[in-house]
Amino acid sequence: MAKLYVVATPIGNLEDVTLRALRILGEVGLIAAEDTRTAGIFLRHHGLKRPLISYNDHNMRERIPQILERLAETDVALVTDAGTPAISDPGVELAAAARAHGFEVVAIPGPAAPIAALSIAGLRTLSFRFVGFLPRTSGDLRRLLEDAANRPETLVAFEAPGRLRKSLAVIEEVLPERKIAICRELTKLHEETFVGTATEALAHFTQPRGEIVVLIEGSDGSAAASDDDESGLADEIAAMKRAALTRVQATTLLSMRYQVSRRRLYELWLQGDQSG
Fold first, then answer.
1. Domain 3-111 carries which CATH code?
2. How sure is the predictor about 275, in pLDDT bands with cuts at 50, 70 and 90?
């Protein structure tokens, strides 16, 4: 029975491709590509010429039945514009449909921007959490960062250059002392990796360009609040209430001062209301 090959392709430098990937791409009867123009450039660079069909978010509903029909006759390869298909790219639905119809789905591993960024950032990483693109609204991003504040995983995300400074401003507000890395244009001519705080990143990236991966180092546990710490926080919250600070003002100040998530500070605020 024919197979669907999920093939990783370069994220920038066209030489970053495995020998196995080139062999598979040269043998399959059809290549389903996110953008046939991008795929065509890559194939021509390596002297390959295979039938191409577009497969992306906009046409997947009509394309999946067509690709399944071809799988009944021949092996098919799935490629994205850059990196590994189905990782914040189209492909999940096709892989699931192929498997549901009895076809074997085979990974041809290779480049992936999140892994490449983690490998060079120099952040302490025993585990990581990939979230795709950062939330578009400040409120959603703030909640994500507050949740991540006391978690040990390195947070990994994509960001558009036009939104980077806005996101950095929120990171500066919620995690002002946390080490972050900005990896830009990985494997390309103008590749750059910046490591520092969000404040330092804002000073550096005045007009960011290119494809960007953002990494935020996980908590080392030193900021986790003990019972005594939380008792002290509760006392500070009570003092701020007496000084007529609002909940938002108090939790913002304490979050920045102690690297405690706003969610936990909000819980302590409510506990103070109940005990009062």
1. 3.40.1010.10
2. low
